[in-house]
Amino acid sequence: MSRTSVIELQDVLLVTIQGELTDRDAMALQEELTSSVASSSARGVLIDVSGLDIVDSFLARTLHDIAAASALLAADTVVVGMRPEVAITLVELGLTLPGLGTALTVADGMDKLNGSARPR
Amino acid sequence: MLCPKFARRIANPQRDDLCRAISPKGAMEDNRMTAGSDPTIRDSVTAFLKDHRQDIERVWASTALFTARRPADAAEECSELLTGIVEVIVSGGEENAAATGFASVRPVLTSLAARSAGGPSGSDRPDVTVLKGPLLRLWHDRAPAETAYRGDLLLSNVLNTLRIALLEIELSAGADTILAQRAQLTELSTPVIKLWDGILAIPLIGTLDSTRGQTATESLLEQIVAQHARVAILDITGVTAVDTLVAQHLLKTAVAARLMGAECIISGIRPQIAQTMVQLGIDLGEVATRATLADAFARGLSIIGMKVSNDERNAG
User: Fold this and answer.
1) Would you say domain A3-113 falls under CATH 3.40.50.20?
2) Is the ipTM of this complex over 0.90?
């Protein structure tokens, strides 16, 4: 059972995923998100995966497809909040998510979309 | 860990019972005789050991096994060994290295084993088989000729099992040492250092095997989360050699850090290591590399938007 929600923050779409994501859910999310990007003419997509314990190869591919489709619609995609164990598993599987932006937190991801490193 | 199992396989009382249960009666008797468990021979051997105790201790103390010891210590150890052996023969446990008699000579065996710590080759290993010759000679001088061979068997069995008990102690001592050293090595695992707000460094040292590498990666990623790091520096100045396996591990760590939103910089690549990596065809791909930790730190500062400048007012 999973809940995904898409929130519009100005010109950025924030996607949060809670619980496990089945393949069907992932495909539904991809379709919903692509149409949202088109209808809202968003400039960026932030996908928060901090609620995910497991990211399998299908979900990794889906993330890649979302990024590619959004890029066609002139939106950058950034995946945020990946857990260490998920990152290690993905790397061991050889899924390095090339071409996908990454950030540690939603705030960092927003900065990345705004094209400025946040001075601390 | 292996040694008790080993000993059990050699002298498993349950299995012996099983053998007796399935073998015909005649074969069982025969087996018992050759194994030297005839009560009469047992008694006469015990009597021999007790009566000639001082002779035996004297010839044992002069064997190569005890020459390195002071005479008083040697005599004491021989006496303890002999007491243990008598106990084993009385209890009939001469084929069981875990018998109580062997357990009681354990301190002596431990001291014998400790003396062999210098050389694993076996050349200078204390070998209890040197005790067998003198003992059997004494037995042959005293024993009635028709039962001598059975006593030989019994005494040989005891000393062979004593040797197994000694080997067991040596092996477990070695295993303990290895475990302790492994624990020390894990404690030496590299710490994650915070260089600046958002910049972490992990100095990798020594040989990177898969366990140590995995631990380093995990602690780095955890610290990235805990400290909100945007830059992670892998410093390999202390790594003695970079082969394909180590390079692959570095690359994996860098990619995992990138998945978490941190940029990875590999620093401390010495010229020889750079050449080796090129010759091995290792390609670190998009991962940034720097010669020194200082260069990597400067790069990290510029990534997080900091600038190092020389304060002109104080310079003069």
Assistant:
1) no
2) no
